[in-house]
Amino acid sequence: QVQVVESxxxxxxxxxxxxxxxxxxxxxxxxxxxGWFRQAPGKERETxxxxxxxxxxxxxxxxxxxRFSISRENAKATLYLQMNSLxxxxxxxxxCAAGRVYCSAENVDYWGQGTQVTVSS
Length: 121
Fold this sequence. Notes:
mainly beta; 0% helix; globular; 52% strand
């Protein structure tokens, strides 16, 4: 049984930082590309960042480029998203996802339940 579990969300003030973690079990972590997505109420799902199987290739949405950093530790089957200089518009549910295709929301195999990030002004 595959499990994808996010943690690390919370309430922070604008300009603050959070680190999200995603622990994956039930699959060979290194065989999957990973990504972070977010969705705010009334908004479409947004691809925030992706990381390839080895971690050598990454993608960042323009909205978070320079502020967020994605990383993975395959030995720990864990994905991270370091979020710095947070803005109120970053407020959303953040979802971790695993897929066999790099940075393709249409080919996500497994989704986490999400962790809420709220950034106050």
